[in-house]
Design brief:
Blueprint lengths: L1 H11 L3 H7 L5 H6 L6 E2 L2 H6 L14 E3 L4 H12 L7 E4 L15 E4 L2 H5 L4 E3 L4 E5 L4 H9 L3 E3 L10 H5 L8 H4 L6 E8 L4 E4 L5 H7 L7 E12 L3 E9 L2 H12 L10 E8 H6 L9 H13 L4 E11 L10 H11 L8 E7 H5 L1 H11 L10 E6 L3 H12 L7 E9 L17 E9 L6 H19 L4 E3 L6 H8 L3 H11 L17
Parallel strand pairs: 2-4, 3-4
Antiparallel strand pairs: 1-2, 5-6, 6-10, 7-10, 8-9, 8-10, 11-13, 11-14, 12-13, 15-17, 15-18, 16-17
Helix pairs in contact: 17-18
Bound molecules: flavin-adenine dinucleotide.
The site of flavin-adenine dinucleotide (FAD) has 37 residues, from strand 3, helix 8 and strand 10.
């Protein structure tokens, strides 16, 4: 590919026909009509930018970066690859916010999906049928603003909104609303996909359904999602955003499970997550937070010391409401919240409530990003490990990991822990969830390596966590998975592996797509 790109980028300026002669098997019409070659950049700055990601752990330099201006461009690029004696790999890249090189393509071509934002189709909203058509390249923050213009919004959100529709739908897209509505992949009506054979296919549960379900949670293996029709609901105006502290994991998980059992809208919280604060994080960690004041953090550290807990847990809830006078303490939302808190077993005196706009709530990690960027702590290695743990083993996991492997770890970021219902995940999608139990927990070890030596230590701790799960027979399933061996991938997909591999043979038989996932080796 490298020599092809050097030749083509030289020729691109004026001698297109020479390329056709050099590659007589290529779909010449595509290449010339769509001017594919001039949209490929091979300069050092472009390839360097596309050779790493948010994780800053893996590096892989592509031979070129493709800047499509239409979906047909993407299809033509794939057909160009397939016309070569040895097809080159093609990696769609959204924001590149993966942690382990999933959107990279060593020696191949990275498709910069964000190029489509200015050239692609505008988002369109059906207020009657409650959906938005968004390009795979769109950032969720932009989907939010576009839908709010109609008083509507998607039902499920990731915690961070500056990632793309195609990127999250290739994984799952989880957040505090998933207990009620399932992940983002359970809230999509239709997709447009450019497959690994270069075809542009519209698919839905009723039309080309095998591709539709394979692509959702499909880690970019079957095609490039160029449009998604996403379900919407009426957007609330305001949110009561709550954190409740627990010194004991049993009360924390019982309350979380009680709250997620209130599934119908209008009862309980609209969003439920949770965090684990290890002792050293509270006593030595960062003294600022987008939620807690410094004095509240001191109060929480004192709680950890007084109760001799090795960890404090925060249940995080959000209750949506629409009152016009949002300062009224007697509002129905506040009354409803008070009644709900009465049912729960957090440490009395340790409930913290903020009254914020819906956008402020959803974009909370955007504010953290600004703070971390100004502290130079954003563009650092992120050896993140996200796991799904079956409900029946979560206390074993807590005892072995938070009170065992990580007990004395240095403060290094955030740990999330919250439950969701398995029946909200459509088993026909490619996403892998624990086989046991009807409820599982998402546990995110979202840690950053800021100082020298941190990365190696955090990687060793991650390996120890996985080894603990293996030894104890806790079937931890990785979310945003990374496996180094074919066996690891087979185990990851479990009963879905046979279908996953068959879909790959059907929709990307040469295995050119998303090579950075490391699931399939090139097959042509
Ligand atoms: P990329 O990293 O660019 O791509 C991810 C994978 O998808 C790659 O394999 C790529 O080839 C493929 N891909 C990209 N675009 C397409 C497309 N259009 N069609 C097909 N395949 C494609 N996730 C959650 O679920 N919940 C969270 O709350 C959450 N919070 C996060 C917070 C932060 C700060 C960060 C950095 C990540 C978070 N994530 C969360 C993870 C995030 O959802 C994934 O990393 C997601 O892949 C990022 O989207 P992206 O656009 O950066 O994708």
């Amino acid at each position: 590919l490298a020599s092809f790109l050097i030749v083509t980028s030289f020729l691109a300026t004026s001698h297109f026909h020479t390329i056709a002669a050099a590659f007589p098997t290529a779909e010449d019409d595509d290449i010339f009509a769509l001017d594919i070659v001039s949209k490929l950049r091979t300069d050092h700055a472009s390839t360097t930018k596309a050779s790493s990601d948010f994780g800053h752990i893996v590096e892989a330099t592509p031979s070129g970066v493709f800047h499509p201006t239409s979906h047909a461009d993407i299809a033509a690029l794939i057909r160009l690859s397939l016309s070569q004696p040895r097809p080159f790999t093609v990696a769609p890249r959204g924001q590149g916010h993966s942690a382990r090189g999933q959107a990279l393509a060593s020696g191949g071509v990275v498709v910069d999906m964000l190029s489509l934002v200015e050239h692609g189709m505008p988002m369109s909203v059906s207020a009657k049928e409650l959906w938005v058509d968004a390009g795979g390249e769109q950032l969720w923050i932009d989907v939010l603003h576009a839908t709010l213009e109609h008083g509507l919004a998607p039902r499920v959100w990731t915690d961070y909104l500056r990632i793309t529709v195609g990127g999250t739908l290739s994984n799952g897209g989880i957040g505090g609303q998933a207990f009620r509505h399932g992940p983002q992949i359970s809230n999509v009506h239709e997709l447009d996909v450019v497959t690994g054979t270069g075809e542009m296919v519209t698919c839905s549960p009723d039309r080309n359904s095998d591709l539709f379900f394979a692509a959702l949670g499909g880690l970019g293996q079957f095609g490039i999602i160029t449009r998604a029709r996403i379900a919407l609901e009426p957007a609330p105006k305001r949110v009561l955003w709550v954190r409740l502290a627990y010194s004991d994991v049993k009360s924390f998980t019982s309350d979380q499970e009680l709250l997620i059992s209130k599934r119908s809208s209008g009862s309980g919280f609209d969003y439920i997550e949770g965090q684990v604060q290890l002792n050293r994080t509270l006593t030595e960690g960062r003294r600022s937070s987008s939620f807690f004041s410094v004095s509240e953090l001191d109060q929480l550290a004192a709680l950890a010391i007084a109760t001799r807990s090795s960890a404090i847990y925060y249940l995080e809830g959000a209750m949506y409401y629409n009152d016009v006078d949002h300062t009224a303490t007697s509002s129905s939302a506040n009354q409803k919240l008070e009644a709900l808190l009465e049912e729960l077993s957090f440490v009395r005196g340790f409930s913290f409530v903020r009254d914020v706009s819906y956008v402020e709530f959803l974009d909370r990690v955007g504010r953290d990003e600004q703070k971390l960027r100004s502290a130079g702590a954003w563009d650092v290695p992120h050896p993140w490990l996200n796991l799904f743990v079956a409900r029946s083993r979560i206390l074993d996991f807590d005892a072995g990991v938070f009170k065992g492997v990580l007990r004395d770890t240095k403060p290094a970021g955030l740990i999330l822990m919250y439950p969701m219902h398995k029946d909200r995940w459509d088993d026909r999608t490619s996403a892998a969830t624990p086989e046991e139990d009807d409820v599982f927990y998402a546990v995110g070890l979202l840690r950053s390596a800021v100082a020298a030596g941190d990365l190696g230590r955090l990687e060793r701790e991650n390996a120890a966590v996985l080894e603990f799960c293996r030894r104890e027979g806790i079937g931890c399933k990785q979310y945003l998975p990374h496996h180094a061996s074919p066996d690891g991938w087979r185990r990851h997909f479990g009963h879905k592996w046979g279908r996953f591999a068959a879909m790959k043979r059907r929709y990307d038989p040469c295995a050119i797509l998303a090579p950075g996932q490391g699931i399939f080796a090139s097959a042509c």
